[in-house]
Amino acid sequence: MILTTLFWLLFFIIVYTYAGYGILLWGLVQLKKLFSKNDTPFDESYEPEVCLFVTAFNEKDYIAEKVENSFSLDYPKEKIQYVWVTDGSDDGTPDLLKKYSELEVYHQPERRGKMHAMNRGMKFVKAPIVIFSDTNTILGKQSIREIVRQFSNEKVGCVAGEKRIIEHDTESAAGAGEGLYWKLESWIKKYDSELNTAVGAVGELFAVRTHLFEDVETDTLLDDFIISLRIAQKGYKIAYTPEAYAQETASLNVKEELKRKVRIAAGGVQTIFRLSSLLNIFRNGLLTWQYISHKVLRWTITPISVFLLYVVNFFVVVKNRSWAPDDFYTVFFYIQSLCYWVALIGWYFENKKIRLKLFFAPYYFVMINYAAILGILRYFKGRQSVNWEKSKRAM
Prior knowledge:
The chain has 395 residues and is of the alpha/beta class. Helices cover 52% and strands 13% of the residues. The protein has a domain at 50-253: Alpha-Beta Complex (Spore Coat Polysaccharide Biosynthesis Protein SpsA, Chain A). An eight-stranded mixed beta sheet has the order 3-2-1-4-7-6-8-5. Helix 12 (328-351) crosses helix 13.
């Protein structure tokens, strides 16, 4: 009885996290559209000054393309303040940037982490809206206009753009998995935003009202998430707009993607402690339910449940003494076993550089849950540095 109860509890957690929440979210949005009035219309004439804010650490290989992309965006150039903070860079990044007279480049030799650089750089922002972007991402031409359009609604305090992975036919498991992951993530963000508010933003492209920004603890690992959720806690909406997007290539391989996911998982645990008040549903209402369903479960219980379910399923079958394919638990155990074998084949193909995407999705799914567990352990051991160890990207 205990084993079967545990089986169904783990089964429910996994299904709810990866499918149930999205389906329930979609259903609630459809009901909202039936019974509520249309949202506040946008003011298409709204065209304030904005600051395009980039932190860069040893990014000389991306500077020319990023600056050219920044200058090509469809928005009056005289209304854009370009701020770059290059703290700790020693590869010539600051010198390359200073060749462009339109840019404001702030540099100090000490490397104290991205969040320290962001806190420092925000002191130089003059515009009412600040748009954060990473050096190695290319923004869609209409991105600033789409972001500003969202801010014409005074209830919006933060705007989350979409992250897009540039995919190739010869993609590795990391590329195929990461591309699929972000398509699903963007779908959920869209409906989160339509129901109430998006749950966080991605550092590749997000924007906030400058007056709402508050200095964040410098040891913060997920700066984009902390900044955006604290604004949501103040009662402002995080709007999501896929028309404002940032493109980047996938991680070079699964090893590089694993490194990135472990850090994100460690940052997720840190975020749960740092935003503990967000777990109070009586204080935050719908936002708490969204936060737990979309993020907290993925960062804590669900990764453990994925692997524990297989073990519990095995012991249930052993206890029932039935390996025949007419028992649900036995069939489900065979299905799980098949999925792990497919993931193992995906791992083998990845190492042999055999590109068969059919095997990459299960492999990526197993990998990100494994990475989440490693991230949890790393956080509690205190071994996660605040400084990014950059993952290599595919070219």
